[in-house]
Amino acid sequence: MSDLSALAGATNTLFENVPVRKSFKAIVDCNNFYCSCERLFRPDLKYKPVVVLSNNDGCIVSRSDEAKTIGVEMAGPYFKAKPLIQKHDVAVFSSNYNLYGDLSWRVMETLRMMLGASNVEVYSVDEAFVDLPEMDEKEVLDYALHIRYTIEQWTGISVSVGVAPTKTLAKAANYMAKENKRASNCVKVLLLPEQQRQALQSIRISNLWGVGGAYANKLINMGITSAWELRNMSVEWAYKNLGGVTGVRLIKELRGEPCIDMKEQLAIKKMIATTRMFGSPVNNISDIKEAVATYTSRAAEKLRRQRSAANTISVFIVPKEQDHSVDFHHGPTISTYTILPAATSITHELIKPAVQLVDQLYEAGKSYKKAGVMLSGLVPETAIQGNLFVPETQNRNRYLMDMMDNINFSMRDDILKFAASGTHKNWKMRQELRSRRYTTRWEEMFEVK
DNA sequence: TCTGGGGTCCTAGGACCC
DNA sequence: TCTGGGGTCCTAGGACCC
To answer: What pLDDT shows up at residue A447?
Structure first.
């Protein structure tokens, strides 16, 4: 490797006038995204503490800066934070995914218009990696600020931007930008080795992208506490101690050697899951079957959207544990799966085996708090669709699905569904504090009087 | 009775991300 | 009393084959 860089240097001195082509990666990350979305339609909340809850109003998944300041913890259970929230008059919202999804699309579309779609990798609902156009190092900061201001002006959502030679360093830069928004103007650029050293020395190992709870503990026990200390470990050490090639990539990225490529957009998913907590514990098998049928319908929609079919369906249910001393995340999960005779994307062909699996899993007398459906073994739908040798009804099924998808998409709220999904929904999740779907429903639009 | 080595495919499980 | 949902990638180890 050092041979290569020596070579590159030599080439450069030979051709003084040929500029070195530098490619920089940026991560653009919406600030407190869900809270910002809620505030957009509630300007009265602009400087007030706001939090958004997860599905089922379970934990806190987004906090405004003001909420962070008064000590509301991220991912903490809502009921524990409630006293603090009431004391400080914090505005509380249930998740409103219609709203966030739509605003996310606007932010990403702005980036695509600025940089070209092929240079934007949507990484999550509120983050995107972008390949910056070639420019002088001095211009990078200005360009990053330009991105930030344009998005804010066009969508009303404020973002932070981190720029560096690799994705991992860009994430580190972004972390620093957010640490001190006022000083950084929400933008941080780490191009020079000296800038990178200072930044990595100030970042604790647990805040590094790619180091989760398990590795953080392990590293701290080994005496490695800062990102800089980790950067200076050898790749052999990383292979042995940080999950093989993943660890090697992490170290190299920290040193400025790009190892994590930009991903193709519209990549076809390899697995599709729909899982939910129940609004309250359920002990009745028919309710569980209704829920599983509903989740299967949702998963099948996702499957058809990417034009895939599945040959394996797994179902799991999670009993409500009796012993509250155990860590709730690691409650027992009971699961099983079926391999289908042929891959399919037809909802009712998936619901039937899914519901049968519930019979295998369910134990009478127990109550359950969660269930989920996973589809895997995905293949392109074209591989199975429109077969001349299957009965005509089977081809018609696919058209039926198209019709259902279209109607459900335009009417929303699952106007058409299968009877197995039930009508009582005793298991349905709680969403007591949801705001209006301002940007996706006519009847919920923002009104100006 | 003696009884190798290398390859592939699959699954379970562990780590991570937001 | 009350603690989210949806993904990815990687490795180890077993089954099977020649």
So the answer is: 75
Q: Which helix (H) or strand (E) holds A275?
A: strand A272-282
- pTM over 0.90, yes/no: no
Domain limits, chain A: 272-421
Q: Answer whether any strand C atom is within 7 A of the Cβ of A430.
A: no
Per-residue pLDDT, averaged over A280-294, amounts to: 90
Q: Give A257's DSSP letter.
A: -
Chain B nucleotides near the protein (CB, 7 A)? 11, 14-18
d(CA A299, CA A136): 47
CATH topology of domain A272-421: Dna Ligase; domain 1 (3.30.1490)
Which segments within A21-175 are labelled E, that is strand? 25-30, 50-53, 60-63, 91-93, 120-124, 127-131, 159-164
pLDDT greater than 60 at residue A19: no
How high is the pLDDT of residue A311? 87
Which residues, at least 6 apart from A369, have a Cβ–Cβ distance to it below 8 Å? A277, A278, A281, A282, A318, A319, A320, A331
Q: What is the mean pLDDT of residues A268-292?
A: 89
CB < 7 A from strand B, the residues are A 123-127, 171, 208-216, 243, 339
**Which has the higher per-residue pLDDT, A309 or A147?**
A147
Nucleotides of C under 7 A from a protein CB: 1-12
